[in-house]
Design brief:
Layout (H helix, E strand, L loop, with lengths): L6 H14 L4 H15 L5 H11 L6 H44 L3 H35 L2 H19 L5 H16 L22
Length: 207
């Protein structure tokens, strides 16, 4: 029997994520996946991918939207509050402290040397997170046949090229690909598969 999902547990987990999210949004997504999908198994990998896809259509900060969705899914209204407080308050406090301290050391050559190493590390984390989101989609496509796999790979490649090479806006690409995907993938839609986490469903609690 896994750990019970309570409001207190959600706050504790999100606080840990907020305090460990070094390297930007990619590291936060990695920590979220490890906590809720891999460790506690409260979410299926496909479900997390669906949540993240939905967040692409919301204005503002996507990670906050993802936090709200996960909090609502696992703990209702109290889960949203606990998740947001755990995610934002500790990390915002640390960020403010770092911002104040950075003013005193921003001209240091050693600091700039350290920062140059952070960018490649963050890029590596982003790549790992991208694979984590792409794998369930490709597995689901494989279950629908080789044509679905090929179409999924084409979508991934064209979307990346449109943003990186052609420099189209992210929203333009997402909306267009979403509309095309609705037409292309409808024949393979069928019944959802692999949506149930391997662990037991978390019990909602207001404690």
């Amino acid at each position: 029997m896994g750990e019970k999902c309570t409001t207190w547990t959600l706050w504790r987990i999100w606080t840990g994520i907020g305090l460990q999210s070094f390297g930007g949004g990619a590291s936060t997504q990695l920590l979220i996946r490890r906590a809720f999908v891999e460790k506690h198994e409260w979410l299926a990998s496909e479900e997390l991918g669906d949540f993240w896809s939905l967040c692409q259509f919301t204005p503002g900060i996507n990670l906050i939207a993802l936090t709200v969705l996960i909090g609502r899914r696992l703990g209702g209204t109290s889960g949203i509050v606990a998740s947001l407080l755990g995610m934002l308050v500790p990390s915002a406090t640390v960020t403010c402290a770092l911002a104040v301290g950075f003013q005193a050391i921003r001209h240091s050559a050693n600091v700039h040397t350290v920062l140059r190493g952070v960018v490649p590390a963050t890029a590596g984390i982003m790549g790992f997170v991208a694979v984590g989101y792409a794998r369930p989609l490709l597995e689901q496509a494989r279950a629908n046949g080789i044509r679905a796999v090929a179409v999924s790979i084409v979508f991934i490649t064209v979307s990346a090229l449109a943003i990186i090479v052609v420099k189209l806006s992210v929203m333009f690409v997402i909306v267009r690909v979403a509309l095309i995907g609705a037409l292309v993938f409808t024949p393979w839609r069928g019944a959802p598969t692999g949506r149930t986490p391997t662990g037991s469903m978390p019990e909602r609690s207001s404690s």
